[in-house]
Amino acid sequence: MPDGGGRLHAEQHYTYHRPVRVGDVLSAVERDGETWEKKGRSGTLKFAEMITDYRDQSGELVVTATAVSVLRVPHEEKA
Question: Would you list the domain boundaries of the chain?
Answer without folding.
Answer: 12-74
